[in-house]
């Protein structure tokens, strides 16, 4: 097959940088353009400095949709919908949006929620994909097998810590080094924006679900990676729970169930999600580790692109973890 012509809108941020790194080495993709209004005419490697020697591409100010098969929207939340509304994007051009603008189902929204472990077959048939949030990805993976079996009978309790890159490239009072380094803090307790899409997915698999999802998000002092723990009531044994999870994810190549207590460094720089289950009394605890910029964003976006274009979903995503 001919190579997939790719365009990126909003090419200067962290998620765009990860996309560029992946797609430069993707055997079935090539760039049509990388757009950035603030960097038009500048070499890509001047913004993404690790790409010096990897590419001579320059940013463009205005996209030419006739050149591409798919565009990735890597803009701030609220900007994607504005962009799609303001531009006449041909129906033949597929869209993968990395913002939250299209994640929740609403009238007139034809974007499919792009969590392959939930909607893989629908993603294959869709032209428009809403890539999940980083917290939402890791947290949902702890819940999907229970929901699919109709076994969530009580409230879900979630505690998850994320690296500073989850806040995006634009500096803020809680993301600059002198505040973040050596520091930990809670934010948006019980009201994080990803709760909507998490609840939506659980209800998709278990329509009668009506319990609370109690989510405590934490800012970590590391740059990338999410460690999430979920616990809830579970009447079965640990072996039954492990079997349930292994069977659910058996055909999903990036999710692994391990008997060892996982850590973030196992997944940083990869598209993997590692899950670990423990039974404590009547409660089942599920741990999840993911890279917020890859499985939580750009790696999953490429996984979705692969599915849209009929490729093996692992294509171009043989990324190696960084252990030290």
Automatic annotation (TrEMBL):
CDD domains the UniProt entry points to: AGPR_1_C (cd23934), AGPR_1_N (cd17895)
Semialdehyde dehydrogenase NAD-binding domain sequence ranges: 5-126
One GO cellular component term: cytoplasm
Subcellular locations according to the entry: Cytoplasm
Short name of one Pfam family: Semialdhyde_dh
EC number: 1.2.1.38
InterPro entries given in the database record: AGPR, AGPR_AS, AGPR_dimerisation_dom, AGPR_type-1, NAD(P)-bd_dom_sf, Semialdehyde_DH_NAD-bd
NCBIfam families found in the cross-reference section: argC
HAMAP family: ArgC_type1
Stated role: Catalyzes the NADPH-dependent reduction of N-acetyl-5-glutamyl phosphate to yield N-acetyl-L-glutamate 5-semialdehyde.
Protein name: N-acetyl-gamma-glutamyl-phosphate reductase
Gene source species: Mangrovibacterium marinum
Classification of source organism: Bacteria, Pseudomonadati, Bacteroidota, Bacteroidia, Marinilabiliales
